[in-house]
Amino acid sequence: MADMDAFRDEIARWAAGGAGDTAAELAAGLGLRTAVLLEGPSDLAAVQALAAREDRDLTAEGVAVVSMGGAMSVGRYAGLLGPPGLGLRLTGLCDAREEPFYVRGWQRAGAERDFHVCVADLEDEMIRALGPARVEEVIRAEDELRPWQTFLAQPAQHGRPREQQLRRFLSTKKGRKIRYGSLLVEALDGGRPPAPLADLLAGL
């Protein structure tokens, strides 16, 4: 895991304009063959949680799961990790509104289109897969019932569908989306994950 963390750090530095020699060395040492490009850390948490649930060691399988810090960076990361750079197979997961960035990123990298699109975002997919009642159970188990009730009392939330309220709540505190990225996957309790997430992992 330490080597994979080091690889992610080196890729971030490379994407920011640094040299790529160390990233290339780490990729070779890890035996990487595939890079999974994700918009942010909450998506990374969900993918890692699902892999753990299925007893898969993605690092051992030669798969690097990378959080890019936003979909607008996909062109840069696809170029560094895909055919023009390290030559890894590219796949990924994105929100529907960010799909054009991914399309252009794959095209610029000369990579075959291979990514999965969430209807709104992964949180929306997870909430629909679990159902609002189950998500509220997770919130309660995390001892966040009071913040959730306070959030629901806000005038802006009155009359909104519960799914939209839950999705917005997950974004109201720093770090909450990341934490619930794994918690919601764990709450599936053997049920099928949302199609974009399940299909992503199945294709690795």
Question: How does this structure look, described?
Answer:
Strands 2-1-3-4 form a four-stranded parallel β-sheet, with helices on both faces. The relative contact order is 0.15. With 204 residues, the chain is of the alpha/beta class. The protein contains eleven helices and four strands. Helices cover 54% and strands 10% of the residues. The chain is elongated. It has helices spanning 2-15, 21-30, 41-53, 74-81, 99-109, 122-130, 132-141, 145-152, 162-169, 176-186, 195-202, and strands at residues 34-38, 63-67, 89-95, 116-118. Strand 1 (34-38), helix 3 and strand 2 form a beta-alpha-beta unit. The model has no long low-confidence stretch (mean pLDDT 96). Helix 3 runs parallel beside helix 10 (176-186) and helix 6 (122-130) packs parallel to helix 10 (176-186).
The counted number of beta strands is: 4
Major β-sheet profile: 4 strands, parallel
Radius of gyration: 18 Å
**Strand content of the residues, in percent?**
5-15%
Q: Name the shape in a single word.
A: elongated
Mean pLDDT, rounded to whole units? 96
Number of helices: 11
Outline the low-pLDDT stretches. none
**Helix share bin:** 40-55%
Secondary structure class reads alpha/beta
Give the strand order of the largest sheet, numbering strands 1, 2, ... along the chain. Answer: 2-1-3-4
Task: Give the end-to-end Cα distance, rounded to a whole number of Å.
Answer: 18 Å
Order of helices and strands: HHEHEHEHEHHHHHH
